[in-house]
Amino acid sequence: MALRVGVTGPTGEIGKAAIAALEEHAGVEAIVGMARRPFDPAAHQWTKTTYRQGDILDRDAVDALVADVDVVVHLAFIIMGTRAESARVNLAGTRNVFEATVAAARPRRLVYTSSVAAYGYHTDNPVPITEDVAPRGSAEHYYSEQKAACEAALTEITSGSDLEVFVLRPCIVAGPHAPALADAMPWNKLPGPVRRISQALPVLRPFPDPGTPLQLVHHDDVAAAIALAVTTRTAPPGAYNIAGDGVVSMSQVGEAFGALPIKVPRAAAVVTSEVLSALPFVPSALEWLHAGRTSVVMDTEKAKSELGWHPRYTSAETLAALASALR
Ligand SMILES: NC(=O)c1ccc[n+]([C@@H]2O[C@H](COP(=O)([O-])OP(=O)(O)OC[C@H]3O[C@@H](n4cnc5c(N)ncnc54)[C@H](OP(=O)(O)O)[C@@H]3O)[C@@H](O)[C@H]2O)c1
Q: Which GO terms describe its cellular component (predicted)?
């Protein structure tokens, strides 16, 4: 049966790739996207997609989005923001989407993109981590805490309903159309003239590498996983880790962005994280340093064997694709 799919956050890095993948899928008849900014699907040569401006904090707008679709894909989220503002949108808005989907008569499936961050940066996490490990989040990192809270809300809200719930947990997403990783580099926050000088001199872009390995996944591979979760008739609902094969080092990331990698002891990352945790107030942007403390490398075997997902790009190839697009 041809599916109608409602998507929150179609204007984002993952959203645009996901819509493109759904547009290509013969089993998808129509897509309705909703986010806050003005956006024209025709500008992307999309023919199945309509777009409406709306805020996930507005329950009426969410009710209207989910009323007439078979599958709801929830992508809308604030990733880089303040702790308070992101909590407002991510917790209340996500709850709206989950509750509205359960309450509506038509949707039979809900696909939610959680994150590797939902597991939390705990030293007793197994490496690699599988979906059997409960997402505990890390209270000191607002994004991790909110991702774990959203998964808990999802379980609470959908338990007892007939909805098929698919949770995807991607690692850091990158690629030519997902530059957020590069944008987050500290030198990109410098004022224009200083940033231009630092561009010419890698020595002005020191990049600490405490030896924590990173997984990356290409936006098109995440989009393929979303399209599979939307359309599969055989894969069981549940959580799926999503990451490119292999890992990259922080030094490789730094080099890809023209920085000067500097090896630092792992203990330095742990101490930095512990010091930050002890402070009464830490700017939200600095909370991302906690992510460098512990390796959270995911096992993606379940997505491959049960969802039938096969990433086309390794972590290293994803990084190279982003670096090449930046040049
Ligand atoms: N990027 C990654 O590395 C990564 C990794 C793992 C998981 N994820 C998860 O994947 C999902 C999508 O991420 P992304 O990378 O595509 O993020 P993104 O590029 O920041 O896009 C966020 C999307 O959410 C929409 N949005 C934000 N607030 C909204 C609101 N109040 N109402 C309606 N729409 C709203 C934005 O559109 P408007 O601004 O137009 O409203 C945009 O379409 C998120 O749940 C994220 O946590 C991302």
A: cytoplasm
